[in-house]
């Protein structure tokens, strides 16, 4: 199994659940997902293994950890099921979910997939911002200043959609570590990284020697993280939601969040003045 140290790949943007009656009528007729999972005794979860602090290997350790990882482990514990992680890049997660290779893909929901899957209530809330070279901060007064810039990101994320919407050229990466993204901005191969606020903040703290910084004023596109599962697997979804609700009530989500996000509680919606972007979900 591939083991890559702490990293940052483009995190995934999310929108509010919009489940409709046509999906729910299929319910457990489609594969009896919960029954099959109980019989297997395990939940197989897709995870990158390079996304610090959501899914990563600490320096010198062979033990996968991170906020998403430990949230799913706790869900498994409360459902009396083993959690098995399959490491892969984001572009492979939904294909693996569709094929049945994995049972859960922790991710945000985008418009082109939100009606193809079922998904839990959010367990992480955030918003997007951007990293630029320190000397270039004043060159960005708004997202419109992305015109003509080179933005680093994964090909299929909402962050790449934002970059392209505002005229940036996209340099794509797959499952690379955070220093690859940040060093490319530092040396001028790219100009900007658009991504999740909390992930970027921690990535910068881990590489203070680089001449890059988070833009202090630009905050946009609220998003959240969910457990994405087979479409119509409503009993399985309800079981996950039940475990997450227990974790929220007893403080487990807050405790895990503060452990991995430097004391911040990402399980609560941020109180920020955040710009939403028309046409981006």
What's the short version?
The chain is α/β, with parallel strands linked by helices and 281 residues long. Helix content is 31%, strand content 20%.
Termini separation comes to: 33 Å
Helix proportion of residues, in percent? 25-40%
Please tally the helical runs, counting DSSP H or I stretches of 4 or more residues.
9
The major β-sheet equals: 8 strands, mixed
Q: What would the principal axes of the Cα set say about the shape?
A: globular
Structural class: alpha/beta
Q: What fraction of residues sit in β-strands?
A: 15-25%
Radius of gyration: 18 Å
Order of helices and strands: HHEHEHEEEEHEHEHEEHH
Q: Low-confidence stretches at least 5 residues in length (pLDDT < 50)? A: 1-29
Count of β-strands = 10
Average residue-wise pLDDT: 87
Feature tags:
two-stranded parallel sheet, 9 helices, 8-stranded mixed sheet, 281 residues, 10 strands, single chain, alpha/beta, globular
Describe the structure.
There is one protein chain. By secondary structure, the protein is α/β, with parallel strands linked by helices. It has helices spanning 21-24, 33-40, 67-78, 90-99, 158-165, 178-187, 197-206, 234-249, 252-260, and strands at residues 42-47, 82-87, 105-107, 117-119, 124-133, 150-153, 169-172, 192-196, 212-214, 220-230. The strands form 2 sheets. Strands 3, 4, 5, 6, 7, 8, 9 and 10 form an 8-stranded mixed beta sheet that branches. Strands 1-2 form a two-stranded parallel sheet. The two termini are 33 Å apart. Residues 1-29 have low confidence and may be disordered.
């Amino acid at each position: 199994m591939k083991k890559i140290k702490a990293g940052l790949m483009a995190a995934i943007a999310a929108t509010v659940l919009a489940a409709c009656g046509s999906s729910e009528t299929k319910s457990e007729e489609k594969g009896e997902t919960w029954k099959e999972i109980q019989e297997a005794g395990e939940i197989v979860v897709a995870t990158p293994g390079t996304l610090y602090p959501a899914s990563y290997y600490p320096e010198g350790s062979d033990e996968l950890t991170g906020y998403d990882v430990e949230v799913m482990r706790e869900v498994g514990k409360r459902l009396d099921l083993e959690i098995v992680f399959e490491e892969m890049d984001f572009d492979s997660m939904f294909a693996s979910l569709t094929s049945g290779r994995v049972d859960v893909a922790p991710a945000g929901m985008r418009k082109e997939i939100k009606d193809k899957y079922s998904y839990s209530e959010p367990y992480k809330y955030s918003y997007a911002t951007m990293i630029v070279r320190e000397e270039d901060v004043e060159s960005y007064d708004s997202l419109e200043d992305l015109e003509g810039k080179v933005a680093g990101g994964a090909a299929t994320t909402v962050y790449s959609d934002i970059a392209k919407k505002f005229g940036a050229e996209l340099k794509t990466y797959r499952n690379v570590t955070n220093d690859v993204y940040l060093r490319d901005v530092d040396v001028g191969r790219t100009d900007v990284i658009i991504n999740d606020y909390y992930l970027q903040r921690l990535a910068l703290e881990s590489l203070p020697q680089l001449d890059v910084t988070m833009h202090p004023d630009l905050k946009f596109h609220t998003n959240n993280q969910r457990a994405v599962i087979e479409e119509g697997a409503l009993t399985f979804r309800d079981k996950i939601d039940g475990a997450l609700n227990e974790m929220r009530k007893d403080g487990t989500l807050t405790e895990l969040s503060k452990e991995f996000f430097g004391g911040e509680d990402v399980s609560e919606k941020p109180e920020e003045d955040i710009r939403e972007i028309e046409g981006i979900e």
